[in-house]
Design brief:
Length: 81
Amino acid sequence: MNKAKDDMRAEYRREDFGKGVRGKYFGRVTRGTNLVLLDSKVAKAFPTSAAVNEALLGLLSLTEQTTRITSRTSGRSKTRR
């Protein structure tokens, strides 16, 4: 702590900043945020978070549609064992 005090500029005083609170904004930051590390090729293809969201929502929609198609009966009755 003393080293940090020594590195401070003369015009700043520690008392001016108030008491620090660890994790003060942690809940606010993590509430609606999911951070994902993207591969560099993926990051180039999707330069903004909106582009990533649009692609992923499209993929979800596609999987929901194909799930409905494959879950339908084929018309054949299943045989009992």
